[in-house]
Amino acid sequence: MKYCVSLLSIGLCVPLLLAAPPAPAAAPVSAPGKPLIIPQPKSLRLGAGTFRLEPGMKWTLRAAARDPRLWQAAEAAFPGAPGAFTRSRSPGVVLQIGSPRQTVFPAGQARWAQDPEGYRLVVEPGGLAILASTAQGAFYGLQTLAQLWAPAGRARTCPALEVDDWPALRFRGAHWFPSASGAPMHQRLITNVFSALKFNHSLIQCEAARWDKHPEITAPNAISKPDLRHLVELCRAHYQEPVPLINVPGHAEWIFRNHSNLDFAEDPQTPYAYCVRHPHSFRFIRDVLKECLPIFQSQSCHIGHDEVTMRGRFPNPECPRCRDETVTTLVVEHANRLARWLERRGVQSMIWGDMLLGPGEASDATHAKTRAEAQQRRAQINKRITIVDWHYAAAADDRSFKLLHEAGFRVIAASWYTPENIRRLSQAALQAGVEGLLQTTWMGFFPDERALESQPQQFAAFVLAAEYAWSGRADAPDQLGYDPGKVFQEACQHRLAGAATPRTP
Question: How far is CA 472 from CA 141, 166, 196, in A?
Answer without folding.
Answer: 18, 10, 17
